[in-house]
Specification:
Layout lengths: L5 E8 L7 E10 L2 E9 L11 H7 L3 H4 L5 H12 L4 E3 L2 H15 L8 E3 H8 L7 H7 L10 H19 L4 H6 L11 E2 L5 E2 L10 E4 L2 E4 L16 E5 L7 H10 L3 E3 L8 E4 L14 H11 L5 E4 H8 L1 H9 L2
Parallel strand pairs: 1-4, 4-5, 10-11, 10-12, 12-13
Antiparallel strand pairs: 1-2, 2-3, 6-7, 8-9
């Protein structure tokens, strides 16, 4: 596929701070073929250079493993040189691009003006799956993928996903793939009952996406954000506890405007949890709701779910938008 050229990137972090990058992987694709994959370990920027046990459990990188490695600022020029002038993709580009921007800011270096696309968003547009996490999308497309959360393996898998989607769609450039809108068929395969017998899936019924919360009727908004570099873009976010700065509906609308999907319950698709009620920190085990407990369980199984308190969430939205939301109450 002449013209399908890009670099896929993945970062791993030492703790819940996005800028705490301890590993970077890059795969270069030219004319629809993988040319090279490289990865680097590094010490996270000063102030973010501590390792959380959960992150170690996910990717296996510890402080001892990076103790003799260059710091992020010293390592990053190698990453930039490998990417060159290629457009970038990442699976959940909002996370990786935000992590790079924060790590550069913390390191006192200029962040590159990279053009990011998101393989997670592309997969949601082209495929009808129960989960759009990297292993599930790779499996659905028949991509051989092991060693999840290894930066090199994740970058290569993201690259293979884009190549496979382009082949399925009959396009030969990343720009054409992004412009393409595909009508995804409804699922028609039988669902296996507990008894082992297959039963036909019932016909889907139209019904409003709404529920009750705090005696208010909440409407899940349509996702409208189109900037894949925004930290919330492509995320599936659940809220637990009341926010002081805005109502739940306003929070849902705000994240949808940035390309995130609001969700009522924590599932295997959840990527973010926002905790209100004056909670501070990023440890869901210190909060008492069933949603927080579910996040603890899923993180223990290796699922990456970012946890934010209200202050972190408002900072992610941005001061201008957060203030406007607060003043609208």
């Amino acid at each position: 596929m002449a013209g399908l050229s890009f670099a896929a990137i993945d970062v791993e972090t030492a703790n819940s701070a996005r800028g705490s990058i301890c590993a970077v992987g890059v795969t270069v694709v030219r004319d629809g073929r993988r040319e090279e994959t490289a990865s680097w370990l590094c010490r996270p920027p000063a102030g973010l250079d501590f390792f959380n046990w959960h992150n170690i459990r996910v990717h296996g990188i510890s402080a001892a493993m990076v103790a003799d490695q260059p710091c992020f600022a010293e390592r990053f020029p190698e990453v930039v040189a490998t990417v060159g002038d290629l457009p970038l993709i990442a699976h959940n580009a909002g996370f990786d691009s935000g992590a790079i921007r924060e790590a550069c800011a913390r390191s006192g270096i200029q962040a590159p003006a990279w053009d990011f696309s998101c393989s997670l968003s592309l997969a949601r547009r082209h495929l009808n799956l129960d989960s759009y996490r990297l292993p599930h999308v790779a499996a659905a497309l028949g991509i051989d993928f092991t060693n999840h959360h290894d930066a090199a393996a994740d970058a290569a898998a993201a690259a293979d996903i884009v190549i496979a989607l382009a082949e399925r769609s009959g396009v030969d450039s990343l720009a054409a793939l992004e412009r393409l809108v595909v009508d995804r068929p409804l699922r028609t395969e039988p669902v296996r009952a507990a008894s082992g017998m297959a039963r036909a899936q019932p016909e889907p019924r139209e019904r409003p996406r709404r529920s009750w919360f705090g005696h208010e009727e909440l409407i899940i908004p349509t996702v409208t954000g189109t900037d894949p570099t925004h930290p919330l873009h492509g995320e599936i976010i659940v809220f637990t506890g009341d926010l002081t700065a805005m109502k739940r509906q306003d929070a849902w609308n705000a994240i949808a405007a940035h390309g995130a999907t609001p969700a009522r319950n924590v599932t295997r698709r959840t990527t973010g949890l926002v905790i209100g009620d004056g909670f501070q920190g990023a440890d869901p085990a210190k909060f008492t709701t069933s949603k927080a407990r579910r996040v603890v369980e899923l993180r223990a199984r290796g699922q990456r779910i970012e946890v934010m308190d209200e202050a972190g969430f408002l900072a992610c939205l941005g001061p201008i938008e957060a203030t406007a939301q607060a003043h609208s109450l």
